[in-house]
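Morning run. Coffee first, then this:
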Amino acid sequence: MNFITIKNIGFLILGIGVVILFFFVNPSDVNFFPKCPLYVTTGIYCPGCGSQRATHQLLQFNLFGVLQQNVLYFMGMFVLAYHGTISLINIYFKKNIYNYIYHPKTPIIILVIIIIYWVLRNIPYYPFTTLAPN
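And here it is:
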């Protein structure tokens, strides 16, 4: 199985370019990054609002800044780290640890968390205002 193709190399170069862009350019300081269509049209924060700024903060190793922009982003990083760790352990150490990401109820639980987060971050009273991106 040869995964080295022109298409894959193109995606890799594009991905590296995006990472470099987010490392050096803070989305808060420029206007050429896309804006959230939901926020622009309604003023309501979606669950992903602040993710571009959170990516910049993550690449600057500012975990508190990531939390200030989008708590759900931080939780997503935890889920990805869990999945990657379990997968690597199973592959390299020939284990068979169950990965709860593949449990049938996991997508439902994640959807409920996203919806609750979405509602809470739009309540205009403290402490819920801390969930809105800065």
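The helical segments are 6-24, 37-42, 51-59, 63-69, 71-92, 106-120. Good start to the day.
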